[in-house]
Amino acid sequence: MGVMMRAMKTMAVLGLAGLLLAGCPGTGGTSGNPFVTITEYGLIQPSDGTVTQAGRSGVGAAVAPVFRREMAITFANTNRGGDLNTNFIAWVYPSSIRSAAQQDALFDSGYRQLATELRLGSAFVLPLGTFIYGGEGTVGATRIFLRAPRGAAQEGEDAPAVATERTISLLTPDVILVCLDPPESCESVAFEYLDEGDVITGDPISGALGVFGGASTTGGFKTLAQVSAYQCWPFQPGLFLKSGGGARAVNQFFEGEDVTFTFNGAANDDGDFAVVTLTSEFAVEEEATEEQP
After folding, report:
1. What is the DSSP letter of 99?
2. Residue 265 lies inside a defined structural domain of this protein
3. Which residues have CB under 8 Å from 262's CB, separation 6+?
4. How far apart are CA 106 and CA 189, in angstroms?
5. What one-character DSSP code corresponds to residue 2?
6. Is 293 a member of any domain?
7. Are residues 127 and 33 in the same domain?
8. For the chain, how many structural domains are there in total?
9. What is the per-residue pLDDT across 177-224, written as a single tens digit (0 to 9) for each?
10. 26 is in which domain, residue-wise?
11. What distance in Å separates the CA atoms of residue 138 and residue 188, rounded to the nearest whole number?
């Protein structure tokens, strides 16, 4: 009799656990395999910082899976000779979305969904349903306008400029693109420098390499070829989310990794006027490991 009672209690507990799991947010539409759930959705944590309790039984708490980590993209103008003007575009392909909850997460982060297919220059075709970040403009482009830094001028022309900056935070996209004109080739304009609202055309392009291949002939316009990490051969401008194994390419970023575009008044040794820098917890951990004796 005692054995039978214990068996009935065990079945009751298992039945209650099944009901609780069925009511947990984020479990609908998944395979039910915890490993697959983690690999598909990333780290499991509340998207809004809250925790939802699984009923009132005191059995514990459950949190909804989050679609992608948040990342910060910073734009910095160090050129004391001109104001910066460009556009920021980012998107997530519909093939990356697996649930309505993930769509809602993108909407909450400032994305909207394309109702028709859209061609972006000769470089990209964004299919119906693509989630684009930003406003109602073409491809949700966000204008980035940064005044020339003025504060360091009083310290002398050789003093480093204190950059003017703008940072945008959003859920990690599949593609990040900074460009002014639709990307037709690497000679398309990526950004421009302005003086009192007019493009600076009087200064010829100068730098360590003189006049570079793929560059415009006037100093105010800078091309896609002059943005570090952009790929010209084959033509693939922008930065792309790294997925899968193997070493990442120079034009790839990790999920949740912060990205900085630094726009300079002079080119580096590679002819770049815009330099892309990636900063992540992974890089910090690697540096800390290397410094240990």
Report:
1. S
2. yes
3. 76, 78, 163, 274, 275, 277
4. 29
5. H
6. no
7. no
8. 2
9. 999 999 999 999 999 999 989 888 755 444 433 333 334 445 788 999
10. 2-62
11. 17
